[in-house]
Structure formats: C-alpha cells, structure tokens
Amino acid sequence: MAELTALESLIEMGFPRGRAEKALTLTGNQGIEAAMDWLMEHEDDPDVDEPLATPLGHILGREPTPLEPGPAPTAGEGKPVLSEEERQEQTKRMLELVAQKQREREEREEREALERERQRRRQGQELTVARQRLQEDEMRRAAEERRREKAEELAARQRVREKIERDKAERAKKYGGTVGPQPSPPATEPGPVPSSPSQEPPTKREYDQCRIQVRLPDGTSLTQTFRAREQLAAVRLYVELHRGEEPGGGQDPVQLLSGFPRRAFSEADMERPLQELGLVPSAVLIVAKKCPG
Question: Are 69 and 8 in contact (CB under 8 A)?
C-alpha cells in the first residue's frame, strides 16, 4: 500500500498547508511525528500561521539543504495514486497518532498542574506557619506586657502602703505625747473622753480590728480594715491617698462625717483611736470637703 507524504498526511488530518509546511521545515523534515509535536506545542502561538522567510538556498538558486523542504510535487509527478480505502486507512492511523499525541500532551499538562498545585499548597502551609509564629510572638509580648504592668501596679500599691505607714509613724511621733489621750490598755473602765458629750460610748475591747467603709462625694466608696487602736487620722490619710487625686498635691484635708447619728469629726477627733469613737467593729463614714475657716 502506497504511503502519503508527511505534508499530505498533515493536510489530511486537518492542519492548514502553511502551518504543516512550517512545522516540517522547523523540525528539519524529521517525519510526521516531529512535525505533529511542533504543531501541538505551538498551536496557541500568535504567529503560528505566519509564513517563513524564503530559504536562502532558493534565493541563490542552490538546492535546499535537508532542513529546507523542496518544492511540493505536482499531481501525477511520480507519486503513486492511493485508493480510497488506503487513504482512509492512512488517515485513520494519522488520527490515532494525533489522539495519542493529544493524550500525552494532556497527561503532561495534568502532571504540571499537579506540581503547581503541590507548590501552591506548600507555599500556603509555609505562610500559615509564619502567621502562626507571628501570632505566638504577639501573644508572648502581650503576656510579658501584662506581667510588667501587674508588677508595676503591685509596686505602686506597696509604695502607697509604705507612705501610709510612714505618715502614721510621723503623726504618732508628732502628736503621741501632746495631743489626745494615749490608747489605754484593756480594762473595765474606758479612758477619759476629751470630746463633746454627744459622742458615743466606746466599743467593746475584745475587737482588735475595725472595718471602715468610706463613701466619696462622687458616689464611689472605699473599704479598708484598720486596727481598733489606730487613730481616725489613719482613715483620713487613707482616703486622701485613694480618692482619685494625686497624693501630696496640696489638697485640703477631707472632712469625715458619720452617717447615723449624724456627726462631723473634729481635728481633735483625728488623734483618737477608732475604738473610742464608736467605730469598732465596723462603721460607714461620709467624705465631704472641709469647709474653710
């Protein structure tokens, strides 16, 4: 059975003549398979249908090289004529070859797509790990910042407590021997009361602590436990340090009032123990600005 030429076979399979000639020329006339590979690889090129420049050998009048195709044979010029069945059989083989090449190309593209997908997933995993590390670093820095703030707050509280203790010690040293009676030891009879007759009788001696709740002018309240023998000045100092103003800022001392019965504590009362003022074991005091004069 006679064979079709490579150019005819490509044309029979539906490729344009110009594209088929170009494929055979650029593959060095190495056969139909090489030409088909080139056609399938370059079918999407924008210049695939542009003709090639005239071979140099044709311009100079020399015979074409093996890489340059010769002129196409004319009909009846030494070419065997194929029967219809032979042409169909050869076309079938060529189509099968085309289908095989197409399958190979699809498989190659599928492998390349899978490889790109693997790379994309790997890059996504690396990005996720980087984000997770960044979040962990941020959480660690936030935790360290909270610990630092807590330590600073505890240190500030400690400084306030130390200031209260120093102020109480200074007041006790300054007024302990001259103003107000000294706390008497436990006895059946209470000590002398140098205040007005309206004050309440002293509380029972078995209480050694006093829980004081102080209501501030802005509606908030402070609660603190003091020793029953501490002076009322310690309560006033505690309020001055915690009423929301800067300690030691030159504010006037606050005025302390009892809720019921209504009573305003005098400066002399500031030097008296809480137990002698009837504030043991617990009491509610009201804060007001001290009136001038």
Answer: no
Sheet (strand 221-227) strand order: 221-227, 209-215, 282-289, 254-258, 263-264
Measured CA angle at 258 (ends 257, 261), to 5 deg: 130
- Residues 262, 286: Cα–Cα separation, whole Å: 10
| C-alpha closest to that of 241 among 155, 170, 173, 159 | 159
Pairing of strands 263-264, 254-258: antiparallel
Report pLDDT digits (tens) over 64-116: 444 444 454 444 444 555 677 866 776 777 778 777 877 888 898 899 999 99
CA atoms of 254 and 234, how far apart (whole Å): 12
CA–CA dist 181, 53 (Å, integer): 124
Return the number of other C-beta atoms located less than 10 Å from residue 224's C-beta.
Answer: 15
Its pTM stands at 0.31
d(C-alpha 32, C-alpha 38), whole Å: 10
What are the tokens at 87?
């042409």
Backbone angles phi, psi at 224, to 5 degrees: -150, 150
127/120 Cα distance (integer angstroms): 10
